[in-house]
Amino acid sequence: MANQLAAPLPKQLAIYARSTARWRAGCEVTVLRDGGATYAAMLAAIRGAAKTICLETYILVDDTTGDRFKSALLERAKAGVRVRVLYDAVGSLTLSTGWLGELREAGVDIVEFNPIAPWRARFQLSHRDHRKVLVVDDAVAFTGGLNISNDYAAVADGGAGWHDMHCCLRGPIVADLARGFRRTWLRAGGASYPLPRGGTDVLGEGFAGDAPAGAFVRLLENTGRRQRTAIRRAYLHVIKHARQHVLIQNAYFLPDRGLRRALARAARRGVDVRVLTPGRSDVKLVEWAGLYVMQRLAKRGVKFLLWNGPMMHAKTAVVDGTWSTIGSYNFDAQSRFNNLELTVEILDSAIGAALVREHDEDLANSTAYDPAAWSRLAWWRRAAAWIAFRLRRLL
Questions:
Q1: Residue 287, exposed/middle/buried by CB under 10 A (0-12, 13-18, 19+)?
Q2: CA-angle at 341, arms to 290 and 20, nearest 5°
Q3: Quick one: which of 171, 163, 136, 92 has its CA closest to 316?
Q4: pTM across the whole model
């Protein structure tokens, strides 16, 4: 179901758009929560593919969840659909050659991003493809925070039930994700194929004129040198222009000084700034460093919520119920300096409201951070948090 804009609101929308270029109008966005809903939607799209499937992921595991995707991809490849799979060498380190061999034998094109080969020229172990993208028939696309692993699968499906957010996209924005996949595919050594046709419904300068029904969506990625800071700049822009609320869910929340300052200033001018982070992280050093960040920002009016369930892995934000983002970008040094990341900016009140509801729903499974908790910690815990924070450039 398309998410409708109640009316074209050029001035109100433009406030949250750092740039007016490359916004796609008339897009359909469906917010997907956790592995149960997300995997079901992705697998349904794969099984309905008629021409092409392009799958890009950081983590691909040959477990029960991976086997579900493999079966769907094998069936479509044998039916004549052109299937391309791009996975990261480090994120998918445990993937077996036999598992991949079954896909290759069926005609699936597979590329490993930045193989672990120190003898290769310009090899960088820390340079990883952290994006999560699925494009089917250049007509429907998915992106967000979910990798393909039992960690993200619902408990009812035998998974660990990690909390994460994804989205399904239709409309002109799909061509941008298809082209983004192709750029990374070629960069990683994949065979060339025709450039997907670009979306024609583009809002250029100023959001002029009446927009088609649906959301305004823009793809943000950091593949090119000039794009390295694009996602960070978008966050800075909307935080600085927030008037009512800034609601963030981020799995590895170690923002740099500029982002910390922007969040503190927003709270100081009366904006409701809330950040949901894992109560227990799968990366302990990040958890320790996060304690130090929280105590500093909490003193400046930023509210923190600690997730009580299994790992919280989402990377979303919503500002004033108008601007939203869903993607793979963490507030850490890896996303800022090393990883290939991708997120979508969304200007739509219906999607904003949906993410606000998700955030409110998560309150029931979260514990509010008490700023006084820092002083109650043992001295060695505070010291460990301080040391981990000093090592944040490596996390």
A1: middle
A2: 110
A3: 163
A4: 0.92
- Neighbouring residues of 216: CB distance < 8 A, sequence distance ≥ 6: 5, 13, 23, 24, 25, 27, 203, 207, 346, 347, 348
pLDDT digits (tens, 9 = 90+) for 261-295: 999 999 999 999 999 999 999 999 999 999 999 99
- Give, to the nearest 10 degrees, the angle between helix 97-105 and helix 64-78: 20
> Which has the closest alpha carbon to 138: 208, 218, 193?
193
Taking residues 367-371, report their average pLDDT: 92
Report the pLDDT value the prediction gives residue 198, as an integer from 0 to 100: 64
pLDDT digits (tens, 9 = 90+) for 205-219: 333 444 456 889 999
CB 315 within 8 A of CB 143: no
- 247 Cα distance to chain centroid: 15
* Structure confidence at residue 374 (pLDDT): 85
End-to-end, the C-alpha distance of the chain in Å comes to 39
**Using CA atoms, how far apart are residues 393 and 334, in angstroms rounded to an integer?**
8
Bridge-based pairing of strands 109-113 and 202-203 is unpaired
CA dist 372 to 84, 294, 296, 368, Å? 51, 11, 11, 12
Which of these, 230, 306, 299, lies nearest to 260 by C-alpha position? 299
- In whole angstroms, give the CA distance from residue 115 to residue 7: 49
Residues written for the chain: 395
Which of 52-66, 126-140, 199-213 has the weakest average pLDDT? 199-213
Query: Which residue's structure tokens are 């996060």?
Result: 290
Q: How far is CA 278 from CA 199, 255, 286, in A?
A: 37, 15, 10
Taking the alpha carbons of 112, 117, 123, 128 in that order, is the dihedral positive or negative? positive
Question: Is the separation of the CB atoms in 269 and 245 below 8 Å?
Answer: no
> What would the two tokens of residue 30 be?
């469906």
Alpha carbon distances (Å) from 86 to 54, 268, 313 = 8, 44, 21
| The one-letter amino acid at 87 | Y
Cα 128–chain centre separation: 15
pLDDT at position 212 is 52
